[in-house]
Amino acid sequence: MYLRRMARHQSQGRIIIFRFSYGLMRVENKIFQKKETIDRELERLLSRGDSLLFQAMRQTVLSGGKRYRPLLALASGECFGVLEDVMLHFACALELIHNYSLIHDDLPSMDDDDFRRGKPSCHKSFGEDIALLAGDSLLTLAFEVMSQAPLEEKLLPRKEKVIREISQLAGIKGMIGGQFLDITLSPEKITEKEYYELILKKTGSLIVASLKSGAILGDASPSQIHSLEEYGRNIGLAFQIRDDIIDSVKDVQEKYLPRPNAVSLFGLEKAKRKLKTFVERALRILEEACLESDELCYLASNLLESKSGSENG
What we know:
By secondary structure, this protein is mainly α. It has helices at about 25-45, 50-60, 70-80, 85-105, 120-125, 130-145, 155-170, 175-185, 190-200, 205-215, 220-255, 260-265, 270-290, 295-300, and strands spanning about 5-10, 15-20, 115, 120.
């Protein structure tokens, strides 16, 4: 039977219907295969040694996760004809950067989390000193991996531009800046504007970097890059609000006031409406920009699926 999923949203008074061209199962299978490719390459990259440091790096990166950012990168690259062998270097680098940030986030001086993806966090397994170095190692490895991407000499300026873009979006103007806001803004006093700034930096920046990487390498037009950036900003907000909703159940049970959180700021029902709104905006942006990608549509609309627990990417 021909399978399909439709995500409906309003745009200028008309119903836009998104459907997967070759059926839901085909799209999910493509994403599953790409996730397996990403996992194999990450395992290869982290199998260069067996020291305690490599063990800590492997435990963090290979212990699960949605691989959301590298999947976005591969889907974006495919939109613009970038070979998967080339795009894989940047996709894996983005995942390494993401995991370095998780190690540092979990440290006692930051979020002080004892568990990550249902397992002891890196510093609980290996100590704070090894965890700190494991995070540093993943970050530097990411740039080594990107520098080795096999591109023709005439395309090297594009590679340099992507590395520069990722550097900025992973740094103080992006993810690190968001982490700073996360530890300095008070949950009781945060405004809606401050919350969005925090999330767009901490969560949204690497998502935007993932999408722009494929577009830049594929020589997309400025308007196409802008559209992907706006798509990324919207799914970045949706991604974090979804995690906040999932985490809120546990937070209420434990009577724990989290750091800035969509549910504590807006209330549960309003947070759910905002999640839906941001996903619908992301889908509308793709359609209006004529960016035809079943995988990008799926990765956005799938954020509306309810899950039992948050994996934090």
